[in-house]
Model the fold of this input.
Amino acid sequence: MAKCVLGVIGGSGIYDLPGLEDARWERIESPWGTPSDAVRRGRFKGREVVFLPRHGRGHVFSPTDINYRANIDVLKRAGVTDVVSLSACGSLREDLPPGTFVVVDQFIDRTFAREKSFFGAGCVAHVAFGQPVSPRLADRLEAAGRSAGVPVVRGGTYLVMEGPQFSTLAESRLYRSWGCDVIGMTNMPEAKLAREAELCYATVAMVTDYDCWHDAHGDVDVQSVIRVMTENRAKAQDLVARLIADLPDEHEPCPAGSDRALDFAIMTAPDYRDPALVANLGAVAGRVLAR
Ligand SMILES: CSC[C@H]1O[C@H](OP(=O)(O)O)[C@H](O)[C@@H]1O
Ligand SMILES: Nc1ncnc2[nH]cnc12
Done:
């Protein structure tokens, strides 16, 4: 088994991971284009950690403009085996007030203007995605959150909208009627691409607002999101520190099959594969394409 290397993708308001030893910014090239930023590589309690600010330092990229493929590819190239996403989100449920950390287990993908796969013409693949979150990593996040003393809820469905505008009232009510729990703009296609790259993936969705459906609360705005995220940032960083302290040395096999996702996924016969695409897939799918 491979060494366990944690990747952390920091969302809105989280542009660094303080407390890393020997921390340095490292630019990693990707055949998929430009990632959001260099990665911040360092060690924590002897374990290697790779941090990437999802929107770039200074919050340069909107959810639509983020190059999710390049981001996942550089994490894979950096040796990451397990990815934790830290994300701000709106609440679609009365009993998930701002300040709640939801370790979600499902997603509904309503995005439509993003590249969603590493595969395509010349190398077609279909990975299983019924369980988009790696349950063991989610267990560890839940435990770390509880030991950090934050209000953690285990399980929930995260609706991913395109944005960048927030939802209309009709949309917000629709998503509630679908049984969604939280709403954000970034975890898709990130989670899909992590699965294609055979990385374990789990999210801490940190509630910052009640979107626009709640009669007793004003509509979401960026100021309130940032205010709550500023309050939550130290807690999120403490949660990650506790997670890292408790991680095993070796990457644990994923019950959702994330780390073997490509075993039977590639449909295109070897002789028909596009060599240029296969070359781009070197980091993501080299394990199966090389054999
Ligand atoms: C600044 S509010 C909207 C923005 O915040 C969330 O991003 P992230 O998941 O990276 O924390 C949300 O998805 C939107 O992109
Ligand atoms: N209400 C909301 N909708 C979409 N993304 C969000 N990020 C934080 N709050 C959000």
Residues 82 and 172 are 32 Å apart (CA to CA). Residues 11-12, 54-55, 63, 87-88, 184-186, 222, 225 surround LNRAV4D5 (ligand 1) (CB under 6 Å). The chain has a mean pLDDT of 97.
